[in-house]
Design a protein that fits this description.
Elements lengths: L3 E6 L5 H12 L3 E2 L2 H10 L3 H5 L9 H7 L15 H19 L3 E4 L3 H4 L6 E7 L2 H12 L3 H23 L11 E4 H25 L3
Helix pairs in contact: 1-9, 2-5, 7-8
């Protein structure tokens, strides 16, 4: 299936793992951190430098929040762009190129749901879970104590929310922005990937009129 599935995720919900498992199940290429390397190649910038700016809004975020504005589409202007902005634009161009190839993909983060909103065969997923479930997962994954895990989750979600809201003008995590919202804390990464795959199959049946 040539669908593009975008996965936005709360911290501690195994969003990347879900994306990898879905990629294997559906036979679709997977994009996450590898977009940084592609963006570096496209822009001629250092991959190591860009890694520090990945999924972070520019320093003008405070101004955007105060004015209610967003950067995407109307305030990128050549040399005035920050490295954050340049990385966003480069990744957005790559994502559009992936869509134009028509081969489908699984993409985690990077405002992909917004960037590709005009693509016909797009499925937008948001992955959430109860806070304590997420704390447990982060403690295990990062080797943190409970207090550290809580702080990690709050800071990561704040960063992702700020990045998304700034570059899209939309609200990160708002259910009506997505086609499918999944609680991975109840069914795990494998269950979540299976749910998305079934959703894809059902969408394909409606698209083709097949039963």
């Amino acid at each position: 299936m040539e669908y593009i599935v975008t996965i936005a995720r709360q911290s501690g919900t195994c969003g990347r793992e879900i994306g990898l498992k879905l990629s294997a199940l559906a036979g679709l290429p997977f994009y996450d951190n590898n977009l940084i390397k592609l963006a570096a190649e496209k822009s001629g910038m250092s991959e190591e430098v860009l890694e520090d700016y990945d999924e972070k809004a520019s320093n003008s975020l405070l101004y955007a929040l105060v004015t209610g504005g967003s950067s995407f589409g109307h305030s990128f202007a050549g040399h005035n762009m920050t490295l954050n902005d340049k990385l966003f634009v480069a990744q957005a161009d790559i994502l559009k190129g992936i869509a134009e190839e028509g081969k489908g993909a699984v993409i985690v983060g990077r405002c992909a749901d917004y960037v590709l909103s005009g693509y016909e065969k797009l499925i937008k997923v948001f992955v959430m879970a109860g806070f304590e479930k997420r704390v447990e997962m982060v403690m295990e994954r990062e080797g943190l104590n409970k207090g550290e895990a809580r702080d990690f989750i709050v800071k990561t979600d704040k960063k992702r929310s700020g990045y998304y809201n700034y570059y899209t003008g939309e609200k990160w995590g708002r259910p009506d922005n997505y086609d499918l919202v999944i609680n991975s804390g109840d069914i795990g990464s494998g269950g979540a990937a299976a749910v998305i795959l079934e959703f894809m199959k059902q969408r394909q049946q409606q698209y083709t009129g097949e039963e």
